[in-house]
Specification:
The chain is 31% helix and 28% strand. It is α+β, with helices and mostly antiparallel strands. The strands form two sheets. The protein has a five-stranded mixed sheet with strand order 1-2-7-5-6. Strands 3-4 form a two-stranded antiparallel ribbon. Strand 3 (45-46) and strand 4 (49-50) form a beta hairpin. Helix 2 packs across helix 3. The longest helix has 22 residues, at 61-82.
């Protein structure tokens, strides 16, 4: 499946980085326990540039969904590293927990997080379907628009 995943990513114009995003505190990027990989929260960023802003103020729904997709790319990058570079070990996405930097009256957090969910299904097919939470918050680290953590099953 790794070649298939890598091919699908390439078809979408996405290459996973050779280095995983760095952690910024007293935690690890992921923990492998049994056949599960728990990936720490990945903030919205692309090519080293933070995607900052508040949904309902600075960003519209489409821009928010794109920020969530960027988080999903980082999640897959961390899973690839957790699997020693072999995405063939990825069985499925189990659960995403998403946090959306939201204006008080913004209530479309699930639609924002669809950017990540839709991307994972596009790349992984049925293995990308998952349980999830989509929560609005008053602020996120560094002012980013979205942060998502996840649980993945591997073999």
């Amino acid at each position: 499946m790794s070649d298939t995943i890598e091919t699908r990513l390439a078809d979408l114009g996405i290459t996973l980085p050779d280095t995983a995003p760095a952690v910024a505190g007293n935690y690890v990027a992921y923990v492998v326990t049994g056949n599960l990989v728990h990936v720490s929260g990945q903030i919205s960023q692309r090519d080293g540039n933070l995607i900052k802003g508040k949904l309902g103020v600075d960003f519209d729904l489409a821009q928010g969904a794109d920020a969530a997709k960027a988080c999903a790319v980082s999640l897959l990058t961390q899973v690839k590293f957790a699997c020693g570079g072999d995405l063939n070990r990825l069985v499925r996405v189990v659960k995403l927990n998403a946090f959306v930097n939201s204006a008080p009256d913004f209530t479309d957090q699930p639609k924002v997080v669809n950017g990540a969910s839709d991307f994972l299904v596009e790349v992984l097919g049925d293995a990308g379907r998952h349980a999830r939470s989509a929560v609005g918050v008053a602020a996120l680290p560094l002012g980013v628009a979205v942060e998502i953590d996840g649980v993945f099953e591997i073999k």
